[in-house]
Amino acid sequence: MRDRGITAASANARMMAAVTGGLLLATLWAWTGAPPEAGSAKMVTRNLGAVLLVVTALTTANYLYAAALARKLRRGEGVIAGWTVPQAEFERFRTEERAMTKRKNNWRMPRGGTRSGLPVIFGRDCVLVGDTYFKLLGKGISRFASVRIEQGATPSVEFAMRLTAYGSVGLGQTARYRGHLRVPIAPGASVEAARVVRHFEDVLEGRAKL
After folding, report:
1. pTM score of the predicted model
2. Could you tell me which residue, 206 or 45, shows the higher pLDDT?
């Protein structure tokens, strides 16, 4: 299990909103009229629909929140650094990443690309790489443990990611996962990349205000 970020938040929010609307109508239908018989389709819809409605509503809210944060970054709010990776450079990075058998990237890179290149925007506690949003916190369920410049055919900013998943409270089950997030650095953006590393090192040391 790895933190894959949130991709295409606006489009997914619209899709989940439509699903939530359909579930709402089905649930309202199930709760109208006389009480349904046990085991009937209406009873199943009543019980299951209410649960799914809550789940889809929360998922929609999460996508909407991520989409709003992405829009702020694109407007330049809270940005600490940013660059655009040329398409040829991104393809070189993608080829190198896909050839790796260990320390695989958490980021699911798009198969295609754009002529204008891959935009990368770092905020104080996040990064928007292309259309994928990652939260970058030094503490919490999903967090990073270190940050550095990874040298390669295309250098990248690498975060050592940690994810803690909690199971049943009664059983006390806890699972911990390790991963890596690598974001390619554009040619000529070494100064900006160094600023990103310094900032997130300060986050880990508690010197940066988020």
Report:
1. 0.83
2. 206
